[in-house]
Amino acid sequence: MMSCVSVSLVEEKFREAYVEGTDIILSPYIAAFEELNKIFQRLGKVFTFVSNDVEKKISILQHKIADNPENYMSLQIMIKYETENNQAIINADKENGCRTLLRLHRALAFVAHFIAIALEKEEEDLRSYVRDAYQETLAQHHTWIIRTSVGKSCSCSFLFLRSLSLSLSL
Questions:
Q1: CA distance 138 to 101
Q2: Which long-range contacts does 112-119 make (Cβ < 8 Å, 24+ apart)?
Q3: What's the pTM?
Q4: How far apart are CA 15 and CA 9, in angstroms?
Q5: With the C-alpha atoms ordered 120, 17, 95, 36, is the resulting torsion angle positive or negative?
Q6: How many CA atoms lie within 13 A of 116 on its CB side?
Q7: What is the DSSP string of 49-105?
Q8: 25 with 16: CB under 8 angstroms?
Q9: Which of 14, 150, 156, 168 gives the lowest tally of CB atoms within 10 Å of its CB?
Q10: How much is the pLDDT for 123?
Q11: Three-state DSSP class for 163?
Q12: Mean pLDDT of the residues in the chain
Protein backbone atom coordinates (compact mmCIF):
# COMPACT_ATOMS: atom_id res chain seq x y z
CA MET A 1 0.00 0.00 0.00
CA MET A 2 1.35 3.38 -1.02
CA SER A 3 1.41 6.10 1.57
CA CYS A 4 -0.39 9.39 1.09
CA VAL A 5 1.38 12.52 -0.04
CA SER A 6 1.68 15.03 2.78
CA VAL A 7 1.50 18.43 1.12
CA SER A 8 1.96 20.11 4.50
CA LEU A 9 5.21 18.17 5.05
CA VAL A 10 6.47 19.21 1.62
CA GLU A 11 5.70 22.83 2.42
CA GLU A 12 7.29 22.56 5.87
CA LYS A 13 10.50 21.07 4.48
CA PHE A 14 10.78 23.63 1.68
CA ARG A 15 10.28 26.45 4.20
CA GLU A 16 12.86 24.90 6.51
CA ALA A 17 15.34 24.68 3.62
CA TYR A 18 14.91 28.27 2.43
CA VAL A 19 17.36 30.83 3.81
CA GLU A 20 15.77 34.23 3.09
CA GLY A 21 17.01 35.15 -0.39
CA THR A 22 20.49 33.76 0.10
CA ASP A 23 20.65 29.97 0.11
CA ILE A 24 18.92 26.59 0.43
CA ILE A 25 19.81 24.05 3.13
CA LEU A 26 20.09 20.70 1.36
CA SER A 27 18.88 18.16 3.98
CA PRO A 28 15.33 19.50 4.41
CA TYR A 29 15.18 20.30 0.69
CA ILE A 30 15.89 16.65 -0.12
CA ALA A 31 13.31 15.56 2.49
CA ALA A 32 10.69 17.57 0.56
CA PHE A 33 11.64 15.67 -2.61
CA GLU A 34 11.26 12.36 -0.79
CA GLU A 35 7.65 13.30 -0.02
CA LEU A 36 7.02 14.64 -3.54
CA ASN A 37 8.24 11.37 -5.00
CA LYS A 38 5.10 9.73 -3.62
CA ILE A 39 3.21 11.57 -6.37
CA PHE A 40 5.21 9.72 -9.04
CA GLN A 41 4.58 6.45 -7.24
CA ARG A 42 0.83 7.10 -7.45
CA LEU A 43 0.77 8.05 -11.16
CA GLY A 44 0.94 4.51 -12.44
CA LYS A 45 3.45 2.00 -13.75
CA VAL A 46 4.76 4.18 -16.54
CA PHE A 47 6.13 6.62 -13.94
CA THR A 48 8.00 3.91 -12.05
CA PHE A 49 11.17 4.86 -13.91
CA VAL A 50 10.74 8.50 -12.84
CA SER A 51 10.12 7.50 -9.22
CA ASN A 52 13.15 5.22 -9.24
CA ASP A 53 15.28 7.96 -10.79
CA VAL A 54 14.14 10.47 -8.15
CA GLU A 55 14.99 7.93 -5.42
CA LYS A 56 18.45 7.44 -6.95
CA LYS A 57 19.07 11.21 -7.09
CA ILE A 58 17.94 11.64 -3.49
CA SER A 59 20.26 8.81 -2.44
CA ILE A 60 23.23 10.38 -4.27
CA LEU A 61 22.69 13.68 -2.49
CA GLN A 62 22.15 12.02 0.90
CA HIS A 63 25.44 10.14 0.50
CA LYS A 64 27.25 13.34 -0.45
CA ILE A 65 25.87 15.07 2.64
CA ALA A 66 26.80 12.11 4.87
CA ASP A 67 30.31 11.78 3.42
CA ASN A 68 31.13 15.48 3.28
CA PRO A 69 28.63 17.47 5.39
CA GLU A 70 30.59 20.71 5.48
CA ASN A 71 30.68 20.97 1.67
CA TYR A 72 27.12 19.75 1.09
CA MET A 73 25.28 21.66 3.79
CA SER A 74 23.69 24.16 1.41
CA LEU A 75 23.23 24.84 -2.28
CA GLN A 76 25.70 27.74 -2.38
CA ILE A 77 28.38 25.81 -0.47
CA MET A 78 27.89 22.76 -2.73
CA ILE A 79 28.16 24.81 -5.93
CA LYS A 80 31.29 26.59 -4.66
CA TYR A 81 32.90 23.32 -3.56
CA GLU A 82 32.13 21.42 -6.77
CA THR A 83 33.14 24.37 -8.97
CA GLU A 84 36.46 24.84 -7.17
CA ASN A 85 37.14 21.09 -7.45
CA ASN A 86 36.07 20.79 -11.12
CA GLN A 87 33.17 18.54 -10.19
CA ALA A 88 30.28 20.77 -11.28
CA ILE A 89 30.17 19.54 -14.85
CA ILE A 90 26.52 19.15 -15.82
CA ASN A 91 27.05 16.84 -18.82
CA ALA A 92 29.59 14.59 -17.13
CA ASP A 93 28.87 10.98 -16.33
CA LYS A 94 29.95 11.61 -12.74
CA GLU A 95 27.35 11.76 -10.02
CA ASN A 96 27.95 15.30 -8.83
CA GLY A 97 25.63 17.30 -6.61
CA CYS A 98 24.95 20.08 -9.12
CA ARG A 99 23.89 17.72 -11.90
CA THR A 100 21.87 15.59 -9.50
CA LEU A 101 19.99 18.57 -8.07
CA LEU A 102 19.28 19.88 -11.58
CA ARG A 103 17.61 16.59 -12.43
CA LEU A 104 15.57 16.66 -9.22
CA HIS A 105 14.37 20.12 -10.21
CA ARG A 106 13.13 18.72 -13.51
CA ALA A 107 10.94 16.30 -11.55
CA LEU A 108 9.75 19.18 -9.36
CA ALA A 109 8.82 21.18 -12.47
CA PHE A 110 6.68 18.24 -13.64
CA VAL A 111 4.90 17.92 -10.28
CA ALA A 112 4.26 21.67 -10.08
CA HIS A 113 2.92 21.78 -13.62
CA PHE A 114 0.76 18.69 -13.10
CA ILE A 115 -0.79 20.20 -9.95
CA ALA A 116 -1.35 23.54 -11.68
CA ILE A 117 -3.17 21.85 -14.57
CA ALA A 118 -5.20 19.66 -12.18
CA LEU A 119 -6.34 22.61 -10.09
CA GLU A 120 -7.16 24.71 -13.14
CA LYS A 121 -9.33 22.17 -14.96
CA GLU A 122 -12.50 20.48 -13.79
CA GLU A 123 -12.40 17.54 -16.21
CA GLU A 124 -11.91 13.99 -15.05
CA ASP A 125 -9.39 13.11 -17.77
CA LEU A 126 -6.31 12.66 -15.59
CA ARG A 127 -4.42 11.03 -18.44
CA SER A 128 -4.40 14.32 -20.29
CA TYR A 129 -3.19 16.21 -17.18
CA VAL A 130 -0.26 13.86 -16.73
CA ARG A 131 0.50 13.74 -20.45
CA ASP A 132 0.39 17.54 -20.82
CA ALA A 133 2.56 18.13 -17.76
CA TYR A 134 5.02 15.49 -18.96
CA GLN A 135 5.20 16.91 -22.49
CA GLU A 136 5.82 20.42 -21.19
CA THR A 137 8.49 19.47 -18.63
CA LEU A 138 10.22 16.08 -18.52
CA ALA A 139 9.77 15.01 -22.14
CA GLN A 140 12.45 17.36 -23.45
CA HIS A 141 15.01 15.47 -21.37
CA HIS A 142 14.02 11.93 -22.44
CA THR A 143 14.64 9.82 -25.51
CA TRP A 144 11.97 9.27 -28.15
CA ILE A 145 11.18 5.76 -26.92
CA ILE A 146 10.52 6.96 -23.35
CA ARG A 147 8.46 9.94 -24.55
CA THR A 148 6.35 7.64 -26.72
CA SER A 149 5.81 5.12 -23.91
CA VAL A 150 4.77 7.81 -21.45
CA GLY A 151 2.47 9.47 -23.97
CA LYS A 152 0.59 6.23 -24.58
CA SER A 153 0.40 5.00 -21.00
CA CYS A 154 -0.31 7.93 -18.71
CA SER A 155 -2.83 6.96 -16.10
CA CYS A 156 -3.67 7.72 -12.53
CA SER A 157 -6.62 7.69 -10.26
CA PHE A 158 -9.25 10.42 -10.20
CA LEU A 159 -9.55 9.86 -6.45
CA PHE A 160 -5.82 10.53 -6.09
CA LEU A 161 -6.18 13.85 -7.91
CA ARG A 162 -9.17 14.88 -5.80
CA SER A 163 -7.36 14.01 -2.56
CA LEU A 164 -4.33 15.97 -3.75
CA SER A 165 -6.55 18.89 -4.68
CA LEU A 166 -8.22 18.84 -1.26
CA SER A 167 -4.83 18.74 0.47
CA LEU A 168 -3.65 21.74 -1.52
CA SER A 169 -6.70 23.80 -0.64
CA LEU A 170 -6.29 23.31 3.13
A1: 15
A2: 113/137, 114/39, 115/164, 115/168, 118/161, 118/164, 118/165, 119/165, 119/168
A3: 0.73
A4: 10
A5: negative
A6: 11
A7: HHHHHHHHHHHHHHHHHHH-TTTSSBHHHHHHHHHHTT---TTSSS--HHHHHHHHH
A8: yes
A9: 168
A10: 64
A11: helix
A12: 78
